[in-house]
Design goal:
Length: 293
Amino acid sequence: MGYENRDYAQYEGQGVQLSMPQSVTMRLVMVNVAVYLLQMFTQYQIPGGPTSPPMVTSTIDQYFALSANWFQQPWKAYQLLSYGFLHSLADIGHILVNMVVLWMFGRELENRYGSKQFLGLYLTAIVFAGLGWSIIEAAYGGPAGGMLGASGGIAALFLLYALNWPYRKVLFMLVIPMPMWLAAGIALFYDAMGAVNRSGNVAFTAHLSGTLFGFLFYKTGFNPLGNFLSGLSTTQLPRRGPKLRVHSPEEEEERENEIDRILRKVSASGQGSLTRGERRTLEKESQRIKDRR
């Protein structure tokens, strides 16, 4: 079916599937749950001291949680991303809340921006949140501990959803109905107060850093990873002579879905709403159609 015959106003939910979910949002949820199970299988307890209780951790945490002093050991820079897929074994609510929020808001944001742009902004927000937390901990001489959790990426999605749909009604804390702009304002105030007071074991500065990246993306479209992923729509076969591009049926379907999404966005919000990566994708598609004539 040609693009002109597509119904761009229609959105089909994911539903219950026996196959691997196609949405990046659901795949991220599945990866987080799988990693949490690995943490559970490798967990052990560190005995407490006279003034501190025992602590539950895992072998996975020791290698992949973000160390506050990672910059003194640059080879641990991978922790800036890996920590975002770990969650506290002492509090199952940590992963439950993060995954519920990811599922609630991620699906619609993915539909608006596209799977690759969405994946890029989520992963970049995790790295951005980790950097912000590390810098502030170093500046204030915080404890040489570690951080784990997807909350930095979730905070970016939460604000981005509020900026796109400020008057959408949501259940704050899954209980209190309110417009999205108010829920985001309350969350931002709570994180700001927590960061100032530096109390408890919540990485409020990571939340704020993730929120800042969400705002930056909304205002400028800054998403280098998403733009890079958007350019990987085809697989190139290395060989001598003329270049040959081989497209699998799955890649063709993914390309068509991406074009459909961008055209729906143009129809709903105009060309001014497109990111540089989306404009580049449309230009490539236009050239591809011309080459086929």
